[in-house]
Amino acid sequence: MCLFSFSAHSLAFDSSPVWDEEEMQWVRENGSLPQEASQRIEYFLRKFQTRDKGHFVQSLKEGEKYLPLMKEIFRKVQVPEDLVYLALIESGFDPHATHKTACGPWQFTPATAQKYGLKINSWVDERKNPEKSTLAAAQYLKDLYEEFGCWCLALAGYNAGEESVRKALKKYGTGDFWQLKDGHLNKITLNYVPKSIAAALIARTPEKYGISIQSHNIPLSYEKVKISQPTNLRDIAYIADIDLRELKNLNPSLKTLTTPPEDPGYSLKVPYGKKAIVEKNLENLYLTQRGLLASAQNSFSSKTQK
User: What is this structure's pTM?
Assistant: First the structure.
């Protein structure tokens, strides 16, 4: 029995169009998909249109803030733009999403994050940085594709880990993801690939699938300022008349309100149009901070000598 034969028609079908393989050529690099593959994808298309519609719509609304940036990064790394919608499946585009040891919009584990150059320490967790984590995700997917020669297997590797895919392909003598059954890879991974494809199909043209996205979210727009010494975000917000919440939202990888002390060239994101005023007032802020520190040290020294 195929994995979806018991459930492919368990949801109420409507009159919306069934997906067309020509829409996503990268899915069928090795020829037309078998009927079972189309059934798996169609199952998730219907699920996103019905049972999971609310969550899907909310996630896509959240994604409007990040999608232009993510698609640009995927284009530069030469990964299909449709794969940015993995972040919808992984986290709903939420930089603060966590599951067990995984974190961020791309749900990196600490080991994979370290492999792809993302810092995790007492001050920052770059898995939550939409820009840096997206670049890491694109590079990881490209590496998986170069190993397996197929984007569907790359997706499976992203979900289950490349070693699990290697073992399954070797043990069962196939290079085709759609030939793998329950027992070759776990059900979560077997579902992950058609689910990701279905999400991308709807997300690229939601109206075609009867989904309306009405949102006031606008793409993130920011500039970067080099911070040469540890500085509190409250102070930066004050000197440039920036809403503190907006500043925090632009820098979700910061674990505290202070920029990392061990990184004298920390790149802080500020709202577009605020870079000049932040840089203009930073030196006076640094002088004030150093003066306060010196005063505190002198006060402490005076007290200890009494």
Answer: 0.88
